[in-house]
Hints:
There is one protein chain. By secondary structure, the protein is α/β, with parallel strands linked by helices. The protein has a domain of 171 residues: Carbamate kinase (3-Layer(aba) Sandwich). Helices cover 36% and strands 27% of the residues. An 8-stranded mixed beta sheet has the order 3-6-2-1-9-11-12-10, with helices on both faces. A 4-stranded antiparallel beta sheet has the order 13-18-20-19, with helices on both faces. Helix 2 packs antiparallel against helix 3. The longest helix has 25 residues.
Amino acid sequence: MGLIVQKFGGSSVADAERVMNVARIVTDTYKKGNDVVVVVSAQGDTTDDLIAKQMEINPKARKRERDMLLAAGEQVSIALLAMAIQKLGYQAISLLGWQAGFQTTSTHTSARIKNVDGTRIKEELDQGKIVVVAGFQGINRKEDITTLGRGGSDTSAVAIAAALHADLCQIFTDVEGVYTADPRKVKNAIKLKEISYDEMLELATLGAQVLNNRSVEMAKKYGIELEVLSSLTNKPGTIVKEKPKMEKMIISGVAKDCDIARISIKGIPNEPGFAFKVFSKLSAKDINVDIIIQSVGTDDTKDIAFTVALDKGQEAIDILKANQDSLGFRDIRLHTNVAKISIVGAGMESHAGVATKMFEALYNNNVNIQMIATSEIKVSVLISKDDADRAVAAIHDKFF
Ligand code: ASP
Ligand code: MG
């Protein structure tokens, strides 16, 4: 018996039937003698629908107003869930982010949590209530409503778990856990019993889309054990923690990321300083660069290619083109038909030939590699987007 934080994503509370289903899960947990804090997202596609409503009126409106708008989505779901729990005969109270003590930085639409003051939540728990908290939102120093960025309610849940020293933080979603590949695309994908924070972080940022990466960073920092599981089936999910006990798998997953673009610059003067000048211009505009390749070109010139987030591609090109004279390159191009495929696994550190096996799978399937990047626990390749699903399946087959 202890304190359990349970988070339910938008698909888990999409309609009345699903809200009642969540109320049942929550009250079952409560009946076993636990204190329960529930964090919910907006129902179904509510957040997207609210954004569409803004777009009809004023796409350039102040971000403060955008936060005011989007926070309304979660207000609906906490009220409905608290009502559903009451209908089952239990006490429940719904709290908005600010009522639950979420203090954030001022940056509207991508605020960071500074502190969670758990006083109110604790008072309500002490009275025997199930506390239902709006994810994704908080309040800044000016007492304006802020939001944490898309997918932010995972982070809300982990922050509450950390602030209240919860015994477990369960993230309910529409998949049964973390798989070795996207189970909707790869039929023989395997559900992992456990995975480390570091591997999960790589998979989260690489586009596995089960957990928001900031939530995993925070769980690692505060040592919060997470369980990812489905709200629709009653099966154990995947535990995310520091040191998984299971026999070390060499690879824990294959991930695909299509939100990526490649920029290639040709005919660069072969002298010091170019990389510094290019990447400082991009970082000044908050454009993150991922994989970088530089080659020694011919005729005293060299080439550089690198990747950026897909939605930053054109902006990066514009910035560099505007500086073409001072940078002195001949040609720049944007390639958007690309995907990054990565294998992640803590066991890689101690095993040779892992990358080779991945390259072999690609070769056997006639997939051309444009770029390669490695770290201690991952190998990523950039390939054509047209080959992406085929490549994931082939690599997955090779390792599992
Ligand atoms: N409702 C918000 C979104 O769709 C937050 C979340 O789902 O975590 O981004
Ligand atoms: Mg959502």
